[in-house]
Design a protein that fits this description.
The chain is α/β, with parallel strands linked by helices. It has a six-stranded mixed sheet with strand order 10-11-12-8-13-14, with helices on both faces. A hairpin with a 6-residue loop joins strand 3 and strand 4 (217-221).
């Protein structure tokens, strides 16, 4: 299988994916990827990959910080070995990192069911976490808190050092005459003083050695010798205590090593999974669906070709087809096409995303590849012999569920024999029912493919003007080698080219000439069809743009109109309130003349709004009751208005038009509405509506609540800029059925909703 990975260049893709892995075990799992031929396993891995890609896109990358390969020290601990401080710290970091990984997943705001089993298998070990964090710091140092004994020993060490420092300074100040240098020096790890040889017997202490010049001696006073011996004793006790602590925690790690190793294995699986998901997301990849007998890849892009330059192609191998025979010129892209289809099948069965818009991949039981020159000097095999050896192996092992990729079938030998052998090989695979994708130059092999309905003829396009491949894949079209046309464009003597064409005609059947003409017509028709599709798409887009622009203008005008009407109404209400106060004052003063004058002023303040004509199906408001309904019919100056379950007769002059007739809804949906007409929810949601759209909805809902004797309700308007909430509150103040209203409680929406209480 490694041979197939290299021939399809899957190994190069694995190296790119491994870049996104966080630690060595995850990288190794990526690089060691192998396809599975079990439908159950493949579907499980692809479902996990889909979930991981969705999580990566929606939530961002996961953190694998602190996780490293600690399998070796875990193995040692399981066998009773005492681990070093560094090894324990690494295991502590891993334990913390894996626990944090699980917490990240548990804290997501939505679930990814396919990943649940992996994250659930990670078991937190709080006792180990507590032990390691108490004993060791982030940088690997052993903390005083590791044990009471260690804390006391280190306290003694600090005190002894302070004593050494104090008494050393005292010795320096009292014996300046005997000192060669007024400093403390080190001799074989022990502090000492450089003194004159003649003074060595004048002080209590020991001579540790002579200086290089012999002009001074290294002298350790008795007090310093005692203190340094004491200090060394404490250092030894400290090391012994650290070793005891390491043994204790190593035993704890050993007890938990099976679970830690299981957590490590899960972390490696997740690291590799999210490396694949990240690579797929960054390259706009998809996860293919597994099918029984279909291959369909829309806008496939080879991962190793620059994504800005790659030509997307759509490949399909659908029943009744089980073979694809691809023809075309050299360097035209046949091998790339063959490899892309085979590679995407291999990647899918290995649990990897592929670069396409959508894909369906059939489940195969094996993949066989015969691509490139397999000449072997060691085995003394020619290219053709090596080719036949590979084909022989494939013939022996391929089944009706296998996929076989054959590049340049029957080449590297006599053309007539190569053609004949190739057709016989394809006959065998057709009999077995094997899926086959093959490339060829042979004319007879191309015609062979047209004779059977289970063979799909395809080709890759070549631009004769620029003498370069376009890499466009075309189904149901045979490709030409175009050798003579290319020779002519490259400047080969015209006489030679013409003679070659004559020889070609002599050896070509009339049917071949007709086939070539048909192929050219098909190419011309394809080009025309593509051009017409582009023009159609451009025209449809233009129509959509114009319609969108028109709708936007209409909405803007309607919104401006409604805003103006509301402003006028609010202005009128404000002035009306002021004048009503004046009327009340005048009623008390009993001045009918003045009161009559003010009433006239009130009438003159009414906004001179445009009265729109009312039609059947229009949504209207009854001015006296503020109820909202729909006009069912009109007889002279009387309108029959449907309000909830009631039908009211109202004069046209007492109605205000809110909006035009609503579009007819689908019969099925209308039926559902009518069945639920008698029911009303305890809240209405107008989030996303404009003020002009929301107020009629709220008015109608309030009327429905009153008709059904509902005591209270909730209006969900959202927070936003606050404009919609303000307008709704103004409407509630004017509604005679509303006893009170207030912002909803925090658990009911807070400032984004209003609780309304109706009058009894």
């Amino acid at each position: 299988m490694s041979n197939i990975k290299s021939r399809l260049e899957f190994d190069k893709i694995l190296e790119r994916v491994a870049f996104y892995a966080s630690f060595s075990m995850g990288k190794q799992r990526v690089l060691n990827a192998e396809p599975s031929f079990s439908t159950l396993i493949v579907n499980r891995e692809l479902n996990r990959l889909k979930a991981a890609m969705a999580l990566t896109i929606e939530q961002g990358a996961f953190t694998f910080g602190g996780i490293s390969d600690v399998s070796l020290p875990l193995d040692k601990a399981s066998k009773g070995a005492v681990l070093s401080v560094e090894e324990i710290v690494d295991i502590g970091r891993f334990n913390y990192g894996s626990t944090r990984l699980k917490k990240q997943y548990d804290g997501l705001d939505k679930g990814y069911e396919a990943l649940d089993d992996l994250f659930e298998s990670i078991v937190a070990l709080p006792n180990l976490s507590q032990a390691t964090s108490k004993a060791f710091g982030d940088s690997g140092e052993v903390l005083d808190s590791a044990s009471t004994s260690l804390k006391e020993i280190r306290h003694q060490i600090r005190q002894t050092r302070q004593q050494i420092e104090r008494q050393t300074q005292s010795f320096l100040s009292q014996n300046k005459g005997a000192l060669v240098e007024d400093v403390v020096t080190l001799f074989h790890g022990r502090q000492a003083f450089l003194i004159k040889p003649g003074d060595k017997n004048k002080m209590e202490g020991s001579v540790l050695g002579l200086s290089g010049s012999g002009q001074s001696v290294y002298f350790e006073p008795a007090f310093l010798s005692r203190l340094q011996n004491t200090l060394q004793s404490y250092y030894h006790q400290e090391q012994t205590e650290i070793e005891r602590i390491c043994m204790e925690i190593s035993n704890l790690i050993g007890e938990n090593s099976p679970q830690l190793l299981a957590n490590l294995e899960t972390a490696a699986i997740l690291d590799a999974l999210f490396a694949k998901a990240t690579w797929g997301a960054k390259n706009n990849g998809v996860v293919a669906d597994i099918t029984e007998d279909k291959l369909f890849i829309k806008n496939a892009r080879h991962p190793l070709i620059n994504q800005k330059e790659v030509v997307p192609n759509t490949y399909s191998l659908l029943p009744p087809h089980k073979m694809i025979l691809i023809s075309g010129p050299n360097t035209g892209g046949k091998s790339v096409t063959l490899k892309t289809m085979g590679l995407f099948v291999l990647m899918t069965l290995s649990g990897y995303p592929i670069l396409a818009d959508e894909a369906e991949i059939m489940m195969v039981d094996n993949i066989f590849v015969d691509i490139g020159d397999q000449q072997s000097i060691e085995k003394s095999l020619s290219s053709f012999s090596a080719h036949l050896e590979t084909v022989s192996h494939v013939i022996e092992h391929a089944t009706d569920k296998s996929l076989v990729l054959l590049d340049e079938l029957g080449s590297q030998t006599d053309p007539l024999e190569g053609e004949s052998l190739s057709m016989a090989i394809l006959d065998h695979f057709r009999t077995v029912g094997t899926w086959v994708i093959a490339t060829t130059h042979f004319s007879r092999l191309k015609k062979y493919g047209t004779q059977y309905e289970d063979i799909l003829i395809a080709s890759v396009e070549f631009d004769l003007e620029d003498l370069k491949p376009t890499y466009r894949y075309r189904e149901n079209v045979m490709g030409e080698s175009n050798a003579l046309a290319i020779a002519k464009r490259l400047g080969i003597d015209l006489d030679i080219v013409e003679k070659a064409e004559a020889y070609k005609k002599e050896s070509t059947y009339e049917a071949d000439h007709l086939m070539e003409i048909l192929e050219r017509k098909i190419v011309e028709n394809d080009a025309l069809h593509t051009q017409l599709l582009e023009e159609k798409e451009n025209l449809e887009q233009t129509i959509l743009d114009q319609q969108s622009s028109y709708n936007h203008k209409i909405e803007t005008i309607q919104q401006e109109k409604q805003d103006w009407l509301w402003e006028q109404e609010l202005l009128f209400d404000e002035k009306l309130t002021q004048l009503e106060k004046r009327i009340q004052e005048m009623d008390q003063m009993v001045k009918p003349t003045e009161r009559h004058r003010v009433l006239k002023e009130v009438q003159s303040l009414k906004p001179n709004t445009i009265v729109e004509p009312i039609h059947v199906k229009d949504t209207v408001k009854i001015n006296k009751s503020s109820q909202v309904g729909v006009v069912e019919k009109i007889e002279k100056d009387i309108a029959f208005v449907s309000v909830g379950n009631m039908s009211l007769q109202v004069k046209l002059k007492d109605l205000t038009r809110i909006s035009g007739a609503k579009k007819e809804k689908k019969a099925q949906r209308s039926h559902k509405v009518s069945n639920q007409k008698s029911m009303i929810p305890l809240e209405v949601n107008v989030i996303g509506l404009t003020v002009a759209e929301a107020l009629p909805v709220v008015d109608k809902y309030l009327d429905d609540c009153v008709l059904r004797n509902i005591s209270s309700c909730r209006i969900v308007h959202g927070v936003g800029s606050g404009k919609l909430r303000t307008k709704i509150h103004e409407a509630l103040r004017r509604n005679k059925h509303v006893a009170s209203f207030e912002l909803a409680a925090i658990n009911e929406g807070g400032a984004g909703a209003t609780r309304v209480v109706f009058k009894a």
